[in-house]
Fold this protein.
Amino acid sequence: MMAGTPELEAQIDQWRSYVQRRQAISTADVDEMEDHLREQVADLTATGLDDDEAFLVAVKRMGNLDEVSREFAREHSDRLWKQLVLVPDAGTTGRDGRSWRELAVVLALAVGAGVAVKVASELVGDETVLMRNVSLLVFPFLAGYFAWKRRLTWGVGAMLLVPFAVLAVVLNVYPFEADGATLLLAALHTPVVLWALVGIAYVGGRWRSDSGRMDFARFTGELAIYFTLLALGGGVLLGLTFGTLNLVGIDPEPFFEGWVLPFAVPGALVVAAWLVEAKQDVVENIAPVLTRVFTPLTIVMLLVLFVVLATAGSLIDTDRGLLILMDAILVLVLCLLLYSVSARDPLSPPHLFDALLLALVVAAFAVDAVALTAMLTRIAEFGFSPNKVAALGLNLLLLVHLVGSALLLIGFLRGRRPFAALGRWQTQFLPVYAVWAAVVVVAFPPVFGFV
């Protein structure tokens, strides 16, 4: 069937991405449903409707996706069960054989990441040097998994290698002062830049795709859940083993620090990424529940924080540690907002949770405004420093992001804007944070004399 306008194709692409997250619906099913959707749109546009109107009517006629998914689950319960199995049965071929091969690749990359960290720890005696390079040692293996999974072209691969190399040079060649602020800032912001590069590999080089960036945002949230679960489970096992060995007179601490941790943490990150890729539908049943639980709790926390800051007295005397903690909370709020948007059906009408999201954004804006005022007051009183400028830049970005989100949410709640516009705002603003992080890593050290 012929392609429609770019706007219609973007809407269909977003609809398809949403349908594909349904566990009971296979790719072939989605293809068939998309053909039916396009036929409906073509018939409706022939009657005089524009593309937007035709798309909305056609989607409505397709029926509720939850009901469609349940119907597929009833008709294909055997397929649904197979999708929940971690690794296919031995002796199967075709796609299942590729799953075994993927498992082998994942395990090889996980071990490779551990080996890289272990070798670096043996060769580098300075722990501070190792800590600022650890993300450079691990993230290439994660990006390598997606490069293999998405079959990236050599051109895209080379494009990713260049910034990796630049960051390695900056972190190890710049004449940082040992305890300087610019060194700490560079070490803290490097993972943000590297994660953006992993995102380019994740979307298969389609870094301009809004739906691809939203998929990566969703992946990031799910990865955090999986990695936390693996860390908790692994921590319990290690704790039990540690306690047992201590009881029999064996001190396992040197072995754990020298061998287990260098392999366990990097390897768990790669394995968690593979689990998200394989079983992301299972997490998506949990994640929306988590966002609905933590959104009202976060609103209460922000209101308490705002009252405390507003009644604390002079903003000049605000503790720097408190401002750092505020930034961490605002970033957490941003992640909660982003994941709530990514987990929501963009075609559903406004409901109560959307109003809660608006309350969350407004509360975060109020806290950010107080933080910005405190930072500007401190800069006016004590002058500029790398830490103050980095924090000021981050808070300005957060302010713009929150204001834009609030305006789009208000428009959606009033029926003047589609929810998809809020999703596009999130995905289009995300690269700005990566650019700012790159500026902090590359430009701040020479500007502030590497102190």
Summary: Residues 69-85, 89-96 have pLDDT under 50 and may be disordered. The longest helix spans residues 210-247. DSSP finds 17 helices and no strands in the chain.
